[in-house]
Design goal:
2 domains; Rossmann fold; about 280 residues; six-stranded parallel sheet; 12 helices; six-stranded mixed sheet; binds 2'-monophosphoadenosine-5'-diphosphate
């Protein structure tokens, strides 16, 4: 690395299994950028100092993952999106100012644009399973793309209600027992829970009631084809998976750090998919 090399990193604890260096490394090579993307496994007692000295540590920006998302939000100047979602996953230095944004929602809709072109023109009614951090960014992005009603199904109803309070009446809190009925008019069904992830309980939903034109998406990417997506494919529905979202959410950070808006390619998807067990 010479003095003109720009470097970004992912800050987490643990972080050594992060897939981000591989996906950003692909773009660094593809666009011939004098850049690096590294893993920084930083324990909680050192993270504040690390983020406050990002530039002195050699970085122009970073992704932030568990368990450091809250502190990164507090130590930075979050943009409107990150403030609305209440979490940031991407940091960049704007002169001396450390700014933050949240790229998950845009990554999600970017993956839908790629997998189901024109989905937003057809979608006025969506069902989102889960009301955690990932759900907040996805629901915010869906409302931003003009989806009229987003039914948020969650075990803990209060979290779905809090989302309605924050984002307005386009959010419709619901229980799991409401799901069969809600599916009848859903043009989009999204799983944002950890159900279906390897080591987690399966997500068992009967998709029979969904319209034949519905799109089904799962943010889980290990395995790549969850039981939900397999059931959707068996019905002939359009699907998008969590790896597509992972790739698309990385676009904005790369652009902020390295000055090029990168394209998610089929070759990159296949390279990343090859590393996912069971794919
Ligand atoms: P993330 O940041 O990835 O969204 P999270 O904030 O921990 O993770 O949210 C996990 C989501 O999965 C929540 O909606 C959670 O439901 P609760 O809010 O009721 O906890 C949902 N979830 C996790 N395990 C679940 C289970 N066994 N059954 C139903 N929902 C589950």
């Amino acid at each position: 690395m010479n003095s003109s090399t720009r470097a970004a990193c992912v800050i987490g604890y643990p972080a050594k299994h992060s897939r981000s260096p591989k996906l950003h490394g692909y773009w660094i090579q593809r666009y011939g950028i004098d850049g690096e993307y590294r893993i920084e496994e930083v324990p909680p007692e050192r993270v504040e100092g690390f983020i406050n000295n990002l530039s002195a540590n050699g970085y122009v920006g970073a992704n932030v993952t568990m368990p450091h998302k809250d502190i990164a939000f507090r130590l930075s100047e979050p943009d409107e999106k990150a403030r609305a979602i209440g979490a940031a996953n991407t940091l960049w230095l704007d002169g001396d100012v450390l700014r933050a944004t949240n790229t998950d929602g845009d990554g999600f809709v970017g993956s839908l644009d790629a997998a189901a072109h024109g989905w937003d023109a057809r979608t006025d009614n969506a069902v989102v399973l889960g009301a955690g951090g990932a759900s907040r960014s996805i629901v915010y992005a869906l409302l931003g793309r003009g989806v009229g009603e987003v039914h948020v199904v969650n075990r803990t109803l209060a979290k779905a209600e809090a989302m309605r309070d924050a984002y307005g009446d386009g959010v419709k809190p619901a229980q799991w027992s409401d799901l069969p009925d809600l599916m009848k008019s859903a043009e989009l069904l999204v799983n944002t829970t950890s159900l279906g992830m390897h080591d987690q309980p399966e997500l068992d939903v009967d998709l029979t009631a969904l319209p034949g034109s519905a799109v089904v998406s799962d943010i889980v990417y290990v395995p790549l084809k969850t039981r939900l997506l397999a059931a959707a494919e068996a019905r002939g529905l359009t699907t998008s998976n969590g790896l597509q979202m992972l790739l698309h959410q990385a676009v904005r950070g790369f652009e902020l750090w390295f000055g090029v808006c990168p394209e998610v390619t089929k070759e990159q998807y296949e390279m990343m998919a090859a590393d996912i067990p069971g794919s």
